[in-house]
Amino acid sequence: MHFSGPSAVFTALLTLVAFPALIEATSTELFGDIQNPGEFESLSLTRERQQHLCHREVPTVFFQTEKDSVERGNGSTIFFHRIEICCAGYRRDQYSGDCVPDCSETSPDNCRNGFCRSPGNCECFEEFVRNEHGACIHTCPIACQNGRCYLNGTCACHPGFVLDQDTRQFCRPQCSQTCGTHEECVATGQCDCSPGYRRTPDLGCQPVCAPDCGFGKCVAPNQCECFAGFIKRPNRNVCEAECYLNCENGFCESIYKCHCREGYRYDLNTTSCLPQCVDNCGQGNGVCIAPGVCRCFGGYEAHGTGCRPKYPAANTVTV
Ligand SMILES: *[C@@H]1O[C@H](CO)[C@@H](O)[C@H](O)[C@H]1NC(C)=O
Ligand SMILES: *[C@@H]1O[C@H](CO)[C@@H](O)[C@H](O)[C@H]1NC(C)=O
Ligand SMILES: *[C@@H]1O[C@H](CO)[C@@H](O)[C@H](O)[C@H]1NC(C)=O
């Protein structure tokens, strides 16, 4: 999991909604897989497009901080708040507050030693080069990955490594055998699945789609091909039946039925799947913000799998 992208986006959210704990604990699950609900697209202003600002509807329950204060949402129904976020592929810059391109998906260190020009497009600074993992690394004469540098700028590989043919600036591990389909040489003599693929018992390395495709087949990393009769709604990467339910964190089995992912239960108010926690966080003493993760209301504290009333403060104890 790459946390740098999402956490940056959520740090930004934090300043908007001012609930640090909510943001920290949840990652992407909180909002399901709808990036920018399509029906709001037409309301976006040019200014917002240029600034890569999008809107997202978030169930109002996630904003609740006090046990007895249920808020009315300002979204499409009272059960949703509508908030501004950076569009997919962008993250909030912690200093400027602007939405800037995000390279964390293609660059393990989010384009350190380079310039993230557009989403996923990391350009290394001069005297750096992209290695096999997408990171920008020093070139000779300063360094040469898995080799040694000569003053004339030549990178000489250590035994078991070969010079990268495209750049001739770093050395890749060498495998004597040819690696299989969707595999690559990850260490000297060792093939493993390429990024985005996972080994299966029968079929070798297979692409991974997360969340899963619903009524479809995962044909490449995070690329779903729908079975006949099923569709992908705008900004969603799951194959489902046509329906009028939001069905976030799930997929529609039919026009009236939402199938929730594991760890989620269907909620009539939002027509979506909300995360599930043991015993509703201790009889409703907190909000379930991710499967099995509670955020306790004011005056309550974490206890076991849920929340319980805090002990009275010392100066209010009556004997
Ligand atoms: C809706 O409420 C949220 C949460 O309080 C707030 O951040 C957001 O700015 C509001 N949106 C609008 C359009 O008023
Ligand atoms: C650079 O120096 C090394 C060691 O002296 C030598 O083996 C190599 O051929 C040189 N390469 C070039 C391009 O001159
Ligand atoms: C649905 O909304 C109503 C009205 O706000 C609320 O009383 C009820 O608890 C909600 N149901 C669930 C399952 O959240």
UniProtKB/TrEMBL annotation:
The superkingdom of the source organism is: Eukaryota
* InterPro entries in the record: EGF (IPR000742), EGF-like_domain (IPR053255), Growth_fac_rcpt_cys_sf (IPR009030)
Signal sequence segment: 1-25
Q: Which UniProt keywords apply?
A: Signal
Domain EGF-like positions = 102-137, 139-172, 174-206, 208-240, 242-274, 276-308
State the protein's name.
Answer: EGF-like domain-containing protein
Q: What is the species of this protein?
A: Drosophila rhopaloa
